[in-house]
From TrEMBL:
Superkingdom of source: Bacteria
InterPro entries reported in the protein's UniProt record: Acyl_CoA_acyltransferase, GNAT_dom, N-acetyltransferase
Protein name per the record: N-acetyltransferase domain-containing protein
Pfam families hit by this protein: Acetyltransf_3 (PF13302)
Organism: Pueribacillus theae
GO molecular function: acyltransferase activity, transferring groups other than amino-acyl groups
């Protein structure tokens, strides 16, 4: 894998720039993760203090995790407004051939295709740049929008998991997988 040392590569779609998180994103990250509706299927733990957003950006904006082949997280920037409308990335990669994908988008951008654009860009990056063979997603059983999103992206349902760790609890989750070579 080729990459610029200590930089997370940026990705582009028609309407989004997926780029490394920065300290300029703290207010947008706080807005995203303090919304109970956004966090409904993420363990229902919302940010309550701007300091939490600072910690999130410091942790996931750090390219160490990408350079170490562990995970990568991007800020989703709407090109038209230059506003961070979400985040997402690949985790549990650990230098192997597969990774988990996930994303969150602000409520006012739901059902507008942003999640789909970001997901397709992250999948392409996983297969083409990271040379992964599989990308998978665990989705809360009640998150119908996320289920539809991954199905439209070509993921196949593989079953359910009774005790998927999510924030401070264990939930039932659906398991979906997309293979580079079906």
């Amino acid at each position: 894998m080729e990459k610029n040392q200590w930089a997370i590569p940026s990705l582009e779609t028609d309407r989004l720039l997926l780029r490394q998180l920065s300290s300029n994103d703290i207010d947008d990250i706080f807005f995203l993760f303090s919304d109970p509706q956004v966090m409904k299927f993420e363990g229902e733990i919302t940010m309550t203090d701007r300091k939490q957003a600072e910690q999130y950006v410091a942790m996931f904006g750090n390219p160490f995790w990408y350079v170490a082949q562990q995970s990568v997280v991007w800020a989703f920037v709407e090109k038209e407004t230059n506003r961070v409308i979400g985040t997402g990335g690949l985790r549990h990669w650990n230098g192997g051939s597969r990774a988990e994908v996930g994303l969150d988008v602000v409520q006012d951008c739901w059902s507008k295709g942003y999640g789909s654009e970001a997901l397709h860009a992250m999948i392409a990056f996983a297969f083409q740049t990271l040379k992964l063979h599989e990308v998978y997603a665990y989705i809360h059983t009640k998150n119908k929008a996320a289920v539809q999103l991954v199905k439209r992206a070509g993921f196949e349902y593989r079953g359910s998991v009774e005790n998927y760790p999510l924030a401070n609890q264990y939930v039932q989750a659906l398991f979906f997988i997309k293979k580079k070579f079906p």
